[in-house]
Specification:
With about 240 residues, the chain is α+β, with helices and mostly antiparallel strands. It folds into 2 domains: about 100 residues, Beta Barrel (Ribosomal Protein L25, Chain P); about 100 residues, RNA Polymerase Alpha Subunit, Chain A, domain 2 (Beta Complex). Helix content is about 25%, strand content about 35%. The chain contains 5 helices and 13 strands. A 6-stranded mixed β-barrel has the order 1-3-2-6-5-4. A 4-stranded mixed sheet has the order 10-7-9-12. The longest helix has about 40 residues.
Length: about 240
């Protein structure tokens, strides 16, 4: 089982949006603890305390001992909300743990063996994760911090699926145990292709100059022809007057 991590919480009496905002401004995080057939309890937890614990990779997939007043009980993090830009913890849900009751937890998938894969080393492929985490069911004592998957035997364009994950004893993948199993692909070796942009046609200055000169010559020729026709018309008119 993952290493226990302890932290302290305080009881919270008030609720609502305005109350939660005041708590956050004072450096506290609103939380709730529920489950195991007991009533839900509203809590306050120090933001700095949580932020420090989050630096431990196993924190989100560990059985934690929480102390409220003088009482301790085991819990795990069911949900945590973090502000997308401020990186501030907004709220946290904690679920009580009962030793003989299975829990459902989402754990990360770590891919190893890239340096052993022919698809990467010999065929120019790249390890392309298709799933980064998966929900599992197990007893609290069997909860893994993560699931490790080796891609060392994969060749180019080959995939691994959920059913290829070597699970610790007592751990099940929920997608594979449901009524209609969903054996999703989790990783592939692929060649990453970058689409090249088509180059724009560039007209050279010399070609524009030639076209411009030809255009000027055509205009001059047209003007000369028009002037010649005008002179001929005038001459014919004068001859007609003389004859008259």
């Amino acid at each position: 089982m993952a290493e226990n991590i302890d932290f302290i919480a305080e009881l919270r009496d008030d609720s609502g949006t305005s109350s939660s905002r005041r708590l956050r401004r004072s450096g506290m995080v609103p939380a709730v603890i529920y489950g195991a057939g007991k009533e839900s309890i509203k809590l306050n937890i120090s933001h700095n305390q949580l932020q420090h614990k989050l630096s431990t990779p196993s924190f989100l997939t560990s059985i934690l001992n929480i102390k409220v007043q003088d009482k301790e009980e085991p819990v795990f993090i069911k949900d945590i909300q973090i502000h997308p830009s401020k990186k501030q913890i907004i709220h946290i849900d904690l679920q009580r743990v009962v030793a003989d009751q299975a829990i459902r937890v989402t754990v990360p998938i770590y891919f190893t063996g890239e340096d052993l894969s022919d698809g990467v080393q010999l065929e120019g492929g790249t390890v392309t994760p298709l799933l980064n985490e998966i929900e599992v069911s197990c007893l609290p004592k069997d909860l893994p911090e993560y699931l490790e998957v080796s891609v060392g035997e994969l060749k180019l364009d080959e995939l691994l699926y959920l059913s290829d994950i070597a699970l610790p004893e007592g751990v099940e993948i929920l997608q594979l145990t449901q009524e209609e199993p969903n054996n999703e692909p989790i990783v592939a070796i692929r060649v990453l292709r970058i689409q090249e942009e088509e180059p724009e046609e560039v007209v050279e200055e010399g070609e524009e100059g030639e076209e411009g000169a030809e255009g000027e010559q055509d205009e001059a020729s047209t003007e000369a022809t028009t002037d010649s026709e005008d002179d001929t018309d005038k001459s014919g008119s004068e001859d007609h007057k003389d004859d008259s």
